[in-house]
Predict the 3D structure of the following.
Amino acid sequence: RFLAREAIGRFHHKPWHSFYLSAPENGAPKVIDQHVGDELDTTFISISHTDGWVACTVSEKAVGVDVQSRNKPRDIAGLSQMID
């Protein structure tokens, strides 16, 4: 979450502590501007982590980032069945 707040701050040219992330029960966290108290509907974040690696992206559009490890076997056939 700190990495996301740091990236959001850089994206908006403000200090990282100007923002926090909501923690909804269902769905992705939303970016909140602490000075305004409102959700930033045009700021989207994506975070992924595995095996000590982390990736984070911030964008004006919904985007996704996914970090995979070569050390973990993947059921490629099973994953492909989830895609229509």
About this structure: The chain is about 20% helix and 25% strand. The mean pLDDT is 86. The helical segments are 2-12, 76-81.
